[in-house]
Amino acid sequence: xxxxxxxxxxxxxxxxxxxxxxxxxxxxxxxxxxxxxxxxxxxxxxxxxxxxxxxxxxxxxxxxxxxxxxxxxxxxxxxxxxxxxxxxxxxxxxxxxxxxxxxxxxxxxxxxxxxxxxxxxxxxxxxxxxxxxxxxxxxxxxxxxxxxxxxxxxxxxxxxxxxxxxxxxxxxxxxxxxxxxxxxxxxxxxxxxxxxxxxxxxxxxxxxxxxxxxxxxxxxxxxxxxxxxxxxxxxxxxxxxxxxxxxxxxxxxxxxxxxxxxxxxxxxxxxxxxxxxxxxxxxxxxxxxxxxxxxxxxxxxxxxxxxxxxxxxxxxxxxxxxxxxxxxxxxxxxxxxxxxxxxxxxxxxxxxxxxxxxxxxxxxxxxxxxxxxxxxxxxxxxxxxxxxxxxxxxxxxxxxxxxxxxxxxxxxxxxxxxxxxxxxxxxxxxxxxxxxxxxxxxxxxxxxxxxxxxxxxxxxxxxxxxxxxxxxxxxxxxxxxxxxxxxxxxxxxxxxxxxxxxxxxxxxxxxxxxxxxxxxxxxxxxxxxxxxxxxxxxxxxxxxxxxxxxxxxxxxxxxxxxxxxxxxxxxxxxxxx
Length: 577
Fold this sequence. Notes:
The protein has 577 residues and is an alpha/beta fold. It folds into two domains: 2-191 and 226-313, ABC transporter type 1, transmembrane domain (ABC transporter transmembrane region fold, Up-down Bundle), CATH 1.20.1560; 362-373 and 407-576, P-loop containing nucleotide triphosphate hydrolases (Rossmann fold), CATH 3.40.50.300. Helix content is 63%, strand content 10%. It has 19 helices and ten strands. The chain has helices at residues 2-8, 15-49, 52-100, 104-108, 112-119, 121-154, 156-203, 205-210, 214-239, 242-266, 272-313, 375-380, 405-411, 426-430, 439-448, 475-488, 505-518, 554-560, 562-576; strands at residues 334-341, 352-359, 364-369, 390-395, 398-399, 412-415, 493-497, 523-527, 539-544, 547-552. The strands form two sheets. It has a six-stranded mixed β-sheet. It has a four-stranded antiparallel β-sheet with strand order 2-1-4-5, with no helix packed on it. It is elongated.
């Protein structure tokens, strides 16, 4: 019941359709229930007395009831479809919005493929449960109760047989549902694994082909696919036991009714028409029980999917958005005050430890250090992609927690280590930086980012379709497009996270000069592997194992810091080779 209550909030737009569907289903059943009574009179009165007019009159009435039931059935199907599809759309929308509100830390707790499954397959399971289950869910209990009532009205002695069969059927159903429920959860997890392998293969298809690992990937897919097949087979093999169990009990019931009813006809206690009508109700009870058992199985599977979706909804957000409408980033100064960070709360080690750093507005700061020194993690604390575990990060002297997230992130442009472009044209991607950017602004940003050096070689210039993930451009071209996109934001703080690693040093120098002229008042934080990328920074921060080892300009660090000197000398030797 708690699950139904939790999801009912997404159903409010479609309640009218649900009510109309139920009305159509109930009235349709009423007409279907009348038909056996009409048929009983047709046999016992019309056929027994040879009254042709009565037979035709009753037959026409049966046809009218059947036609009305058909029309109502079509109407109920349309309303049920509107309910199921509408509810699924609302759940999908809400789940997607929740995922969008996740911080990087929240996101780390769910695999990508699992989120995709929860957003698609799990929602579809609930949708199918509504579409396939509402009609039998309403018809089944109502039809069963009414059919049994009609059976008692015709002959109470025969109807007592139902009271014996019902508990037996209930025991079968409970046992099947108890076994199949956990299997459905396992099956959705197996779908997660299939999605993971497919996603990895398609994302890294060039690497797979370059290393001739197609056979290995096919074998890996075969394993998870066979696992899904195995789990699905076990699930549905258990679920289908429902049908033979129901048929065994109900057909046994029918045989008992025919045996006892036949004896009652011989003794004159029951008419043939009454027995025929009674058997019609028996078949309706049988169909009702089949429908109810199938609805239970649908709800069992939908319940497993609903729990997985609720895990996303119930994920506590690490980042609370501030209400401060007056908190505005005006200058772009940044300060770290005794900041420590760990990816998992309670972990033994900190990724960043006791960071104290003051970056004045308009300064250019370089951050350098060995692989794994947490350079990227440090800058991701500024726009609150992660939340500092200890200490405080300030922007313009105000803790970042006090800024509305949308405003804070809009004031900070970040070119991440992994360059990401989206499906669409060059211009579409650039306008992520500024949705209403004019062509002149786009061209200026591209000139500063040195995109103008290759844009003319693309098939349609700024209107060239980049394909999924920007597959139609090289790594260096991707980096420059991402930098141009960031420039269009006119940010107060610009963070370049090793975002010039794929361009040559001449182009990098042009980029650096262009940024200085284009964004003179913007605070620039440059993470780099090459010392040449940060050589002209106002100050350089040397990170080592999550701690600040030294801060200074190039010459002072060359004299005083061994780590910096070793990096510089190794790169000079590499250049000499």
